[in-house]
Specification:
The complex is a heterotetramer.
Chain A (H helix, E strand, L loop, with lengths): L4 H22 L4 H28 L3 E8 L4 E6 L1 H24 L8 H20 L3 H19 L6 H29 L7 H6 L6 H17 L7 H8 L2 H26 L5 H24 L3 H28 L3 H36 L10 H4 L1 H14 L6 H14 L7 H33 L16 H19 L1 H16 L4 H6 L17 H22 L4 E4 L17 H11 L5 E5 L11 E5 L1 H22 L6 H20 L1
Antiparallel strand pairs in A: 1-2, 4-5
Helix pairs in contact in A: 1-2, 1-4, 2-3, 2-4, 3-4, 3-10, 3-13, 3-18, 4-5, 4-10, 5-6, 5-10, 6-8, 6-9, 8-10, 9-10, 9-12, 10-12, 10-13, 11-12, 11-17, 12-13, 12-17, 13-15, 13-16, 13-18, 13-19, 15-17, 15-18, 16-17, 16-18
Chain C lengths: L1 H19 L5 H26 L2 E3 L4 E3 L1 H30 L5 H23 L3 H19 L5 H36 L8 H7 L5 H19 L7 H8 L2 H30 L3 H21 L5 H22 L1 H33 L10 H4 L1 H14 L6 H16 L3 H24 L15 H15 L3 H14 L1
Helix pairs in contact in C: 1-2, 1-4, 2-3, 2-4, 3-4, 3-10, 3-13, 3-19, 4-5, 4-10, 5-6, 5-10, 6-8, 6-9, 8-10, 8-11, 9-10, 9-12, 10-12, 10-13, 11-12, 11-17, 12-13, 12-16, 13-15, 13-16, 13-18, 13-19, 15-17, 15-18, 16-18
Chain D lengths: L2 H6 L2 H22 L3 H26 L3 H28 L11 H25 L7 H18 L3 H22 L5 H29 L14
Classes of the chains: A mainly alpha, B mainly alpha, C mainly alpha, D mainly alpha.
């Protein structure tokens, strides 16, 4: 009798979410019940899920078969290290987000709170099932349920046309991606036609089939993750959704795509080719650069974060691709390093991006504004949100000693060991990629300074901002959980790496636990202390020591006198809030330096305009290069085919007649 | 050994804190000489700092806690940075705590806080300065990282101590890649330390200032800390340059004589470095802000080129 | 006995309604008789499951797992449609679009249509099958033309002519089968009885049967809506009363396809090649692809879903064309879920267009706001029909696609492209109707939304869990199809 | 058809072959005919030939239910339907079918091609035939296809319906002559359907005229995708 307690527990949590959702829809207008009981309960379940998953990562593989699904293909569920890790991510992030959501959803608004509750919890449960699924059908059902519920969550304010458009685009891309995934499963099941993952693992593929399966999976999961040419839905959908949902989508849902791709690449396909890794690497790099550049020029705070998500997914893919390259060149230890960086970054991104999205939610609630150009100075009104957001901003910008830095550090480390690869071009290429990563990290800092500075610092740009209020208690608790997560993940990297060890062992047959455990908890040295080491504890500790010391010394030696005066500003007397940099102004250097990336529409006033107007719209060129032509082609197809249905009965009869004659002649011949 | 490391570390930190303003003073002095001006005293920076520390702080009405905390954070970061860079010895307590990448991260942390502080009061110059600072930063940071990467590829390590040891104490070898990265490093340092041709630390001319625009609202002890942090930054960068490209003379093991010698050599190198900086500043003119990408892009390309050169020519070593 | 009830109840009800159809209880009578039919069908089903296939009434009728499943489905959808049509027709009457005599015609013809459907399903005689199909055409022509507007007349005329001509081809095919069978079975051997033909199908003349199948597939295929024989279908769906659209999509197309499948079994037996299957796959692929491109051009909501029905018929035809246990299972499942989903959609669409006072998509907005149940019914129904899990349509599409990947990989890109285009086109339109600020008005009578959600609930269940006895039943039927 | 086969066929068979030939001829005649009244008369003649041939088959093969069939055909297609059609024409006062969508010679050429195809298609079936005559099924098919062609080329409702009925004639001919007739139930059903269909057609004519002021089906091209 094998131990199935963990997976049963996980299943119970997922079912619990479904039940909570059901209760929500049973009492659609009972606001207090939903916000004070159901959502917090969901958060507790999330925590339970995280704890169970944590035990599941290192534990034995557990499988069960549910009596649901197709008659020949019941739902197979399986818990191993990989799914355990991503479930941990889901549980940990959702605990914070659900707590926040309990305080976030207000009366009124678009969709009834009960319905929100149902959709939200089904969304959570479907993500859990995605990670547990062990056959193609269960996976697809969970996957599409996830897409569907998140679509409805995105469109909960469906009265706005742009939100409808965003939802449409999102579901369409998700659906097209799902088709790719399904095809990939189909290729992997091959002639055996058995869609359990076990059968796919066993099935031997010939020739190009594994590559086709892999490429289809990249397409399918890439659409969900927002990889470069398929990213267009992401900056539309994330801003459209209510903030907890944006947080969930960006923090967790994008990771399900990474999970799926890892499952396919490392688990279901037996062998990997090195250039698969290169493909992922290049796509990831393109997404990261593109994402970060666009993130830096956005004027809508949620769009800014959405593009930043594209960037982070790109970074994750870069690490993933590197892991594939190392593994295919039989360098398992380096593969483990790259993969650890990747997984670590997944976890980090879940925390800091959820945190930031939730902060934008609070800002949105307090001010009703998403446009950066109408915010500012909120640090005085919303200190909690501001300081917690600062943690997220620093983590997102990849600054020590927070968590974002650790994973970027690991990633850069893994790039530094590429010179051992037996492939000339790769040797040359990979350091350049590392250089690009450095650029991306620096640009991310730029974008984050812009985000934080314009929203929270400076003077309020609108009158009404004076009425802004800080987040409520539950919201603060949710934010705090995520911020603490960012700090803890940053300060205790060795514990995280030890936790990731079973996962990398499962995927690339090597792990970093030996290196991580040999130096104690405070020093991170993945290869050896001589080669590279980083100790966030000392780092943070010394800054934390220096600061009060300096403060104390200055006070002690000199004085603490201070008086409030009007701002100096080089003596300029007529300061107004409109003289600060706007979001556009702050992004101007980026627009200028990276102008080939953008499609710009500009209108400059002439010298004689009595009412000068300035207009600058920056758009995604990929929309025009790729999607508009595709829609044109389809439109052309419909126009062509419409000629067939031309209304005349004689013509219709002629079709029947011709069909009959042709078939008769063919059959006879 | 631990005692030695602690001692060396403390010594290095104190030397940095004390010498940094003097380095700035030295640069200013040299520059004045070269420009045929009468030079300020070498210790002028100390006087300025002391005066600032004694003055009252005048805080804008809108300034927040972040604004007041930023000088301390920036100062701590720079102090830590100068403690990390192995100038006198490679046996330091902090050396395993942060490698080259973490050092870059540390600089970035300081930069972000100073930029945020610049935006905090909400004046036109403050946000202008922050924007430009971040702009210069995102161009300079990758170039700096690439410089480090070349060095780490040579020494198979990103740990600064190991890099310096490798470069200083192994048998003499000519690394052409280091020439490229040396130039790149110099360009990055000029940009990062708000020097001509990117910025001019002595000007308050509205349209051209970068660093000064950000700290326009600071006064009293806050300004003093920031100025001191700037000095520390210049000092740290200079030491970095010395450590990476002219590392000879760094003390390796516990040896008071070596340490003393190292200190002496360091002062000499710094003096030379400061003179060079003044020379460059005198010889070149300040660029328009949007020429900066070209300047720093060149630095970035040189750094990448250095890495490729290393991979091509020196791969066997 | 049960079968007699199944067939007699709608027939008698039809005659009765022809007499008392103007009375205000007519709509309830309609429901009651549909319910009785459903109950009888349920009894019949239970008996067939228990006792196996049976042959009745001098071998003219027979029931096996394949058709009893369709009989049960037909009776169910017939019942729910009658439930839906009560408030719908009351609103139509209220709006003055239908007079009392028209309502009488409607009720009577509705029951007659059900009767012809059930006869077509239950008969053992290919000739009677043809007669019943023709009778079904005639009744539905009257139903489509119910409003007597120019548009409805045009639609009905096209429907009549195209299906009449089509079905004439089917008769020729039937004659050819008879011609071939008579040589084996003799003039008195019941050469049109399917059970007899099934026994001797191996010795039927292959060339004749292959020609016969061409005629049959062109004939019954016209009624199924196979491209390029489909042109009547969108018009008829758009212009008839909505309950009629629901049964046309949900039942008539199925029954026509059932006829094709029955004939395919014979042809397969005789030919020992995949001729019939290939032909069906070809038609199926064409029928999946072409309507997908029409969808984006639609301005009329019912026409939109008419095209969607064509597409799904193509998919089912393709599935049966592939053959084999999984594909046939999937085809049957898809028939079920398509019937349930599409009729549910039409119920929702009916009320939606009544609320908006128009069938023009652009003028229907904000359903969710004004009437959440109708809005969600339409939304979820459309998502289900577009193959979103966890609804059952995805289940069958999954099985069809996986079989296609396994055996006919070249067909999968075509199928998937079409499904993708269809998704893009249809979902955009449905979303625009469900979401946004409302333009629609509340209805004067309470809509009957139970049918919508019962259907969608069943479809949802089939997506997550197919009850074992139902699965077994499908398997038996799939085995019959081969 | 070669002569030796003809000789082997008994008289009844020869008569049926003759009937078949006449059917085909009438089919062509209808295809070429512009006037509606003549069209109805031709249709009536075709019905009569069909009845005769059915009766002959019934007598020669001793299948008496075919006699019922023949009678039904006679009543329905020779008397009832032409009568209804005549009345309709008078009531609706449409006498001329001036335009065809395709000119007549072209239509004839197409018709000949169709006959070739029909014979070719029917050839394997004819070779199997154990009945008196072998060619009838091909001719029946040709009749069906010619009627089909006529439906396509006519732009008015009434000739279209006549063409439709002619197609039924061809089918009936195939059913009775080529296969000794279908079972009685089926034939009755078919006949009933034809009758009901005719009535509905009749109703439709009036409705269409009322709504469109014309029986020209080219008015009914509202539904299109262009």
């Amino acid at each position: 009798m094998r131990d199935l307690s963990t997976i049963n527990g996980l299943l119970a949590v997922a079912t619990g979410w479904l039940i909570i959702g059901g209760l929500g829809i049973l009492f659609p207008r009972r606001f207090t019940l939903i916000s004070r009981v159901l959502f917090p309960l969901g958060a507790v379940l999330g925590l339970a899920l995280a704890c169970l998953a944590l035990t599941g990562i290192a534990g034995e593989v557990q499988t069960i078969i549910l009596p649901l699904g197709l008659p020949d293909l019941p739902f197979h569920l399986r818990l191993d290290g990989l799914s355990g890790f991503f479930l941990l991510l889901l549980g940990a992030a959702s605990a914070g987000i659900s707590t926040y959501a309990a305080g976030y959803f207000r009366k009124g608004g678009g969709t009834a709170p009960g319905l929100q509750c149902l959709l939200y919890h089904v969304f959570l449960a479907s993500m859990a099932f995605v990670m547990l699924a062990d056959d193609g059908y269960a996976f697809m059902v969970a996957w599409e349920t996830m897409a569907l519920t998140s679509f409805f969550l995105v469109t909960s304010e469906h009265r706005h046309a742009e939100i409808r458009r965003a939802g449409y685009l999102y579901l369409l891309v998700a659906h097209v991606g799902a088709v790719g995934i399904l095809l990939s499963f189909g290729v992997m099941a091959g002639s055996a036609g058995d869609y359990t993952f076990d059968a796919m693992r066993e099935f031997f593929h010939h020739g190009a089939w594994p590559t086709i399966a892999f490429l289809l999976a990249v397409f399918g999961f890439g659409a969900k993750a927002g990889v470069l040419p398929l990213h267009i839905w992401l900056p539309e959908a994330h801003p459209a959704a209510p903030s907890p949902v944006s947080a969930m989508m960006s923090g967790v849902m994008l990771k399900t795509a990474i999970y799926g791709l890892m499952r396919v690449t490392f688990d279901l396909l037996q062998a990997q080719l090195w250039w698969w890794g290169l493909i992922l690497l290049l796509f990831g790099l393109a997404s990261a650069i593109f994402g970060v550049i666009f993130s830096a020029i956005q004027t809508d705070m949620k769009r800014l974060l959405a593009y930043s998500s594209i960037e982070n997914i790109g970074l994750i893919l870069v690490g993933f691709g590197l892991a594939i390259i190392f593994k295919s060149f039989l360098l398992p230890h380096l593969a483990a390093l790259a993969l650890t960086a990747t997984l670590y970054h997944c976890l980090n991104h879940a925390f800091f991006k959820s945190l930031l999205f939730l902060c934008t939610g609070s800002v949105l609630h307090a001010t009703g504004e998403r446009n950066l150009g109408k915010l500012g100075g909120l640090i005085h009104r919303m200190p909690w949100v501001t300081w917690l957001a600062l943690a997220g901003v620093l983590a997102s910008a990849g600054l020590p000693p927070l968590n974002g830095f650790v994973s970027e550090w690991l990633l850069l480390q893994s790039f530094l060991f590429t010179s051992g690869l037996p492939h000339g071009y790769l040797n040359m290429l990979l350091p350049v990629v590392a250089a690009a990563l450095a650029l991306i990290a620096a640009l991310a800092g730029f974008a984050m300074v812009k985000f934080f500075g314009v929203v929270f610092l400076g003077q309020p740009r609108e009158e009404k901002l004076a009425a802004a209020h800080d987040a409520g208690r539950l919201e603060r608790l949710g934010l705090l959980w995520l911020a603490v997560g960012c700090v803890a993940l940053g300060l205790l990297p060795n514990l995280v790496i030890m936790m990731l060890d079973p996962v990398t062992r499962l995927l690339v047959h090597s792990g970093l636990s030996a290196a991580a455990s040999s130096h104690g908890w405070w020093l991170l040295a993945p290869i050896s202390e001589d080669r590279a080491s980083y100790s966030p504890a000392i780092f943070f500790g010394s800054i934390a020591l220096f600061m009060p010391l300096v403060f104390w010394l200055v006070r002690r030696r000199y004085h603490g006198r201070m008086s409030r005066v009007p701002a100096w500003d080089c003596g300029f007397p007529l300061q107004t809030s409109r003289m600060q940099d706007t979001a556009e102004g702050f992004g101007q250097p980026i627009r200028r330096v990276f102008s080939p990336f953008f499609k710009r529409t500009r209108e400059h006033p002439s010298a004689f305009d009595t009412q000068p107007r300035y207009l600058s719209i920056v758009e995604d060129p990929i929309w025009y290069w790729l999607y508009v032509p595709i829609t044109r082609i389809v439109e052309f197809g419909t126009r062509l085919i419409a000629f067939l249905q031309e209304g005349r009965i004689a013509v219709y009869l002629l079709y029947s007649f011709a069909t009959l004659i042709i078939l008769l002649v063919l059959t006879r011949g | 050994m631990n005692f030695y490391a602690l001692f060396a570390q403390l010594l290095e930190l104190i030397v940095a804190l004390i010498l940094a303003p003097m380095l700035t003073g030295w640069v200013n002095q040299c520059r004045a000489w070269m420009q045929n001006r009468s030079a300020p005293p070498l210790l002028q920076t100390y006087y300025t700092l002391s005066k600032l520390f004694h003055k009252d702080v005048l805080l804008a009405h809108n300034a927040s806690t972040l604004f007041r905390a930023a000088p301390y954070i920036v100062f701590s970061c720079m102090a830590l940075a100068s403690a990390i860079v192995p100038t006198l010895s490679t046996e330091l307590i902090f050396s395993p705590a942060a490698d080259a990448i973490a050092l870059v991260g540390l600089f970035a942390l300081a930069r972000i806080f100073i930029s945020l502080a610049g935006m905090d009061v909400g004046t036109s110059f403050g946000s202008l300065g922050s924007r430009r600072e971040m702009f210069i930063g995102f161009l300079a940071e990758p170039a700096l990282l690439m410089v480090f990467f070349t060095a780490s590829l040579i020494s198979h390590s990103t740990s600064l101590a190991t890099i310096v040891e490798t470069l200083a104490h192994k048998e003499f070898a000519i690394y052409p890649s280091l020439a490229f990265s040396g130039i790149a490093f110099m360009m990055v340092s000029l940009a990062e330390n708000a020097r001509v041709p990117i910025d001019n630390p002595t000007t308050h001319l509205e349209l051209t200032m970068i660093h000064e625009a950000m700290i326009l609202e600071y006064s009293g002890r806050h300004l003093a800390l920031i100025e001191w942090a700037s000095c520390l930054k210049l000092f740290a960068y200079s030491c970095l340059g010395i450590a990476l490209f002219f590392p000879f003379g760094v003390a390796q093991a516990f040896d008071p004589i070596a340490l003393t010698l190292a200190s002496a050599i360091l002062v000499a190198k710094l003096a030379l470095g400061g003179f060079t900086l003044a020379l460059i500043e005198t010889l070149s003119a300040k660029m328009r802000v949007f020429r900066a990408p070209e300047f720093l892009g060149t630095a970035f390309l040189l750094a990448v080129l250095a890495m490729l050169v290393h991979l091509l020519l020196e791969a066997g070593r | 006995m049960e079968l007699a009830l199944v067939l007699a109840v709608p027939f008698v009800a039809s005659l009765l309604l022809a007499i008392v159809g103007h009375h205000h209880i007519a709509d309830r009578l309609n429901i009651v008789s549909s319910l009785l039919t459903l109950l009888a069908a349920a009894l019949l089903t239970i008996r067939v499951i228990g006792e196996g296939p049976m042959v009745l009434f001098q071998e003219q009728f027979f029931v096996d797992p394949l058709n009893v499943f369709l009989i049960a489905l037909t009776a169910l959808v017939g019942f729910t449609t009658s439930v839906f049509s009560r408030p719908y027709m009351r609103v139509e009457h209220h709006h003055g679009r239908l007079s009392v005599p028209r309502l009488r015609l409607y009720h009577s013809m509705f029951q007659m249509f059900m009767c012809t459907m059930l006869v077509a399903l239950a008969t053992n005689n290919l000739g009677i099958l043809w007669v019943a199909m023709e009778a079904a055409t005639l009744t539905t022509v009257l139903l489509v033309a119910l409003y007597r507007t120019p548009a409805s007349l045009e639609a009905a005329w096209k429907y009549f002519i195209l299906c009449g001509v089509g079905i004439a081809q089917a008769l020729f095919g039937t004659i050819l089968i008879y011609f071939a069978a008579e040589r084996v079975l003799g003039p008195l051997g019941g050469a049109l009885l399917w059970t007899h033909l099934d026994v001797v199908k191996m010795s039927l003349e292959p060339t004749v049967l292959s020609l016969a199948f061409v005629f049959l597939i062109v004939g019954y295929g016209t009624k199924t809506g196979l491209v390029p024989l489909h042109n009547w279908l969108p018009d008829a769906h758009a212009e008839g009363p909505t309950p009629v659209s629901a049964v046309l999509s949900g039942l008539l197309l199925n029954v026509a396809l059932y006829a094709v499948v029955r004939c395919k079994v014979l042809v397969d037996g005789a030919l020992e090649s995949h001729f019939a299957g290939n032909l069906m796959m070809g038609f199926g692929l064409l029928t999946v692809t072409v309507p997908a491109f029409y969808l984006s051009r639609q301005k009329d909501i019912k026409r939109l879903f008419g095209f969607s029905s064509i597409e799904h018929m193509g998919l089912i035809t393709f599935a049966f064309g592939m053959g084999g246990p999984v594909a046939s299972f999937a085809g049957l499942l898809h028939m079920t879920v398509h019937s349930l989903t599409k009729s549910a959609i039409f119920f929702a669409v009916g009320h939606a267009s009544q609320m908006a006072g128009t069938q023009i998509i652009a003028d229907i907005k904000g359903l969710l706001k004004r009437s959440p149940t109708i809005g969600w019914g339409l939304m979820l129904g459309s998502l289900a029909i577009l193959g979103m899990p966890p609804f059952g349509v995805f289940t069958s599409e999954f099985m069809i696609l996986t079989t296609a990947i396994k055996h006919y990989p070249w067909a999968t890109p075509v199928l998937l492209t079409s499904l993708g285009v269809a998704f893009a086109a249809m979902f955009g339109k449905v979303q625009a109707m469900a979401f946004g600020d409302p333009t629609v008005q509340p209805l004067p009578h309470n809509p009957a939304l139970l049918p919508v959600f019962v259907h969608l609930g069943l479809v949802l269940m089939l997506g997550l869990w197919i009850p074992p006895y139902l699965a077994e039943w499908y398997r038996q039927a799939a085995r019959l199809i081969g | 058809m070669n002569l030796s086969i003809l000789h082997a066929v008994p008289l009844a068979g020869q008569v049926i072959n003759l009937c078949a030939a006449i059917m085909l001829l009438l089919g062509f005649a209808m295809l070429a005919q512009r006037r509606i009244l003549t069209l109805i008369n031709l249709f009536m003649m075709q019905g009569a030939v069909l009845a005769v041939s059915t009766a002959i088959v019934a007598l020669t093969t001793q299948q008496h239910h075919l006699l019922w069939s023949a009678g039904l055909t006679l009543i329905l297609k020779v008397i009832l339907l032409p009568y209804i059609l005549h009345r309709l024409i008078r009531r609706l006062s449409v006498k001329w079918d001036i335009e065809t969508l395709l000119n007549i010679p072209t239509t004839m050429l197409a018709g000949i091609a169709l006959v070739v195809i029909a014979f070719n298609v029917a050839q394997p079936i004819s070779q199997l035939s154990g009945t008196i005559m072998r060619a009838t099924i091909g001719i029946a098919l040709a009749c069906v296809l010619l009627a089909f062609l006529m439906m396509i080329t006519r732009s008015k409702a009434v000739p279209q319906v006549i063409a439709f009925l002619a197609m039924e004639n061809g089918l009936f001919f195939a059913a009775t002559s080529a296969t000794y007739g279908m079972p009685m139930v089926v034939e009755l059903g078919i006949a009933l359907d034809v009758l009901v269909g005719m009535v509905i057609f009749g109703v439709f004519f009036f409705q269409i005229r009322e709504q469109f002021d014309s029986l020209d089906i080219r008015h009914m091209e509202r539904f299109k995708e262009r």
